[in-house]
Amino acid sequence: MSAPVATEPKPAPPAVETLKVKVDGLEIAVPKTMPDPLTGKPVPTTMIQACTLARTDVPHYCYHPKLPVAGNCRMCLVEFGTPAMGPDRKPVLNPDGTPKIAKSPRPAIACATPISPGMEIYTTTPGVKAMREGVLEFLLINHPLDCPICDQAGECKLQEYSVDYGQATSRFVEPKVHKPKQVDLGPRIVLDDERCILCTRCIRFTKDIAGDDALGIVNRGSYNTLSAYPGKAFDNNYTLNTVDLCPVGALTSKDFRFQMRVWFLKETKSVCTSCATGCNIVIGAREEKVYRYEPRENDAVNSSWMCDSGRLNYKWIGAENRLTEIRRQNPGAGGEKITWTTAAKEIADRLLAAKPGTVAIVASARQTNEELFLLSQLAKKLNALTDSVPRIQIGDKLLLSADRNPNSNGAKLTGIAPAQLGSNLRKIAEGIGKGTIKTLLVFGEDVTRHGIGADLLAKLDTLVASEILPNQTTKLAHYVLPGCAHAEKRGTFTNGKGRVQKFMKAVEPRGDARPEGEFLHELVAAVNGNPGFTSIEGLFNWMAREIPAFNGLTWGGLGDTGVTIVLPS
Amino acid sequence: MPQEFRLILKYADEPGYTPDIECYLRHGGYESLRKALAIAPKTLPDGKVVGAPEQIRDDVKLSGLRGRGGAGFSCGLKWSFVDRRSGKPIYLICNADESEPGTFKDRQILHKDPHQMIEGMIISCFANDVKLAYIYIRGEFPEGARILNRALNEARAKNFLGKNILGSGYDLEIHVHRGAGAYICGEETGLIESLEGKRAYPRIKPPYFPAILGLYQCPTIVNNVETLCAVKHIVGMGGAEFAKLGTPNNTGTRIVSVSGHVRKPGYYEIEVGKATIGQLINDFAGGLREGRKLKAVIPGGSSAKVFKAGEKFKLKKKGPDGKDIEQEVDMLDLPYDFDSLMAAGSMSGSGALIIMDDSTDIVAALANLSEFYAHESCGQCTPCREGSLWMSKALHRMAHGEGRKQDADYLLKIADNIPGGRTICAFGEACSWPVQSFVGKFKDEFVARGEADEARRAAGATRPSHS
Amino acid sequence: MAFSVPANLEAEITELISHYPQKRSASLMILHAVQEHFGWISQEAVEWIAARLELQPINVYELVTFYPMFRREPAGKHVVKVCRTLSCALGGSHELHGHVCQKLGLDAHAHGLQTTADGKFSVEFVECLASCGTAPVMMCNEDFHQAVTAAKADEILGKCA
Fold first, then answer.
1. Taking the domain B362-458, which CATH number applies?
2. What pTM was estimated for this model as a whole?
3. Which domain does A392 fall in, by range?
4. Ramachandran assignment for A288, one of left (phi > 0), alpha (psi -120 to 50 degrees), beta (any other)
5. Chain A closest-CA separation from residue C56 CA (Å)
6. Minimal Cα–Cα distance from B182 to chain A, Å?
7. Other CB atoms within 10 A of residue B185 CB
8. Mutation target vs B (from C41, C66, C109; most B CBs, 10 A cutoff)
9. How high is the ipTM of this complex?
């Protein structure tokens, strides 16, 4: 079997012409052009990009690398000079032979000004400091000083730059401009116009990225006010990105506001599970409770964005009715709590006793590659019929995939699911009906909603259900195994485009729940007889050797943003 | 005594002169256009053929014409920046948004002699290969817009506009576009945004230089009404002849608007630099009212830095031997041109003098201007948006008896944080220069006002003695 | 929504749109035309114009709130605009504005648009009308008046039917 090499599918970028500039005296070579954030076309590299490459921070509010440049906040003003030209259009030299630099009498906004050969950018001069102080003072005169009750506190750019450029006291003695407070901008967002600094990041995002030209500035001058059209809710599936983009506390998420001070949140790198896109996220949690998802930058997947439906799909993790006990049940006649050891032994015994071909497995395409791989090992041994449940809905052009499973590709690559997800479900139902299938393992699905009804389940000798929340299948199962949300374990998914991405554990599992992979590892060891790996790293690397499409991958090599594999056509 | 030199307003105020095309034609109208269209291609010694448009552009460069809208930038140079190789259409917009306080010259042309401007505009469009042009006229000139529309229809009927103009093969359409009460539309990129149907937010430069990325992201020329009229005369008399009018580097004529505390406020067309500020005030505008003394002059529309009566400047002048000699010049003796006023730290801007006599409450006068700028700031960028209203509020407070002695410095500090390239457009300068110059030059009055208010408050008096 | 425009206004709007390579450019001219017809720009009008130009309503609403000549409420039959800016102020525009307001029973200190109870007059203290040489100046609807004394103002208001 030929082993496709796991590499980025992108062709090697063409050699980009560079030019040399100096940032605060440090000479660096920077690409002459960089891709435009919207079109991807090469456009002249700007001063702020050069400063970033030189690891020099230029404070800014309106600039965002993923949005068109607005240039309105004026916080990124820098001083600069260019090589002086003589009347003969030749560079003028200093006595020591270095080019003489003509300092521009006027500053420039670093976000919009292209660099030129030999340019010198000055970001730490007294003049630059004075301009930053001036801009910050202007931004603060009409800004309410309500940091103690502001949700942005701790991640506010006004607070951040005030430390460097702020004054301890304000000399502003005039009445402030008052603007609308607590504006119900849409179903998920509240706007405080007094906090807004009119940077227009949200306007640009929703117009140019989300394609919903819904926000604008009304009134004029100092009375400028961010607004949606009166009576029209700001309601597309990407609105909450504007909360992330808002550098101050003007736009807040109704879901998150007043829930938790951000500095108490523990941040964990993870992946959204709501569709096959696999947006990279950061889970914010405190004391084993998830409070929010935020998008994490990954240009190969989701840029810096995620959809609202995915972002808010986390409440189930903390649901009151989570399954927390391992149970042996006699459907209809009660059951009892048992231990993982007992469950593993009894289930293994039943599987070993089952005749080959009489076992079927329905595993979820919401499970990890590793879990699906372990199930595929069992299936191979037991000659089991397997499948997953497809979830096809309507997608969009931006991030939301029509495939609402996060790991349909994992299900297919591990052999758990056929090319057409769900096409084996009817065969399994028929097998149970005919009595040829006597044992069914169900992981993370309620099969009663997918063509294997309660009447069929009642015919089984053995029904094992691993689940997070109770459902009709767990009710009818002989063994109920409490499973883990992705936030409670580590693992990988393979997204719709073949990107293998890992996620880390943010919170502890509930009750006796335990990562499915751990239990499956024990079950595989008992049934197949090989010891396997107890660590996720070892398990992943084993899987990568066994599954051709994953050949060459290692857990460590996935990094934080994953690796794209070539999907078999 | 200097005399008016009426070139552009030659006929406008003659008895019986009407804005219709027949009257214009009787006075030699559209002859310059005929001349322009008839210019034959010229072959240079190197064999390069120069067409009529390029010859006109060269002539405008030769004329030394500088923009009459406010910045005084060379018109020929502005035209030379136009990207003629982009393959995109080139647009020309006539800036008839006359809105700089103190200025009322374009109003005269638009209302009394619209065809002159239209002729200048057609020639300028022809010279720049423009097929579609707009006249952006301020919303407060509804009659002006009607007059222009009528004039454009007349010009179309006579084939000075439209397809194949006068058989030349050149096509041009011009439309009137009305503003709606926003000073910022006078800024050329704000005007372009407004013409695109948006809020008049000036664009960042780079990258949006109109000559490259203007209207609809196409190369665009924006010229003032008076500038376009001058083009007509340049073609009529030749650039070299035009350059003989006025003074070196300050060629042609200028219509100067004089308002405020003078006996005969009005507009006076002079050869640029051939009259001084003092002559404009005293000889043209009849001098100050009985018993009044001069206090201050705003020399170039309200944005220009104010001159204080008696202010002296050291100016460089070419001596008979060609060497620079430094001369001390009283403010009133400054020749009214672009360069002298700039050398004196202000500008001739839109060519508008606002005269204030000794009855003027200088605090109230500045408060008035600052209220204007706070009202007119588009609010796009931080320093101008926040600074303009802050200054206005402070001045309003001072003008209403709530001054403090530190207010002069307080105002200067605010004003110093706005101009000098900190803002997207020149409005930052426009709103802070009056404050810097008024407070800087009349600081004793601002401090005294603050002290008096503090003393009054300390004494327990509630009502201000002035308002 | 019951908002509709008469055929002649619709024709005017169609003509205006034809003046520009991009429809959106016609926004200001259409707002003028609609305001001339209805006297003000209602929310329905904003939505109608937006639909006509294939824009979002916020795009038009941004304009109506930016350009002071557009009114978001009905004004009086005669709208008087007195120039407030420096040259006119030096020439007595505060006195003129005060006089007009007093005569009509309006607040002499308010600068924004105010309308008499009978809906006959609106008065607004506006920025520079560009006739500084004939200060103080005012407009009554589209008619322009120069060097307006109190007596002249009385005469102008008196002629308003």
1. 1.20.1440.230
2. 0.95
3. 327-564
4. left
5. 7
6. 10
7. 28
8. C66
9. 0.96
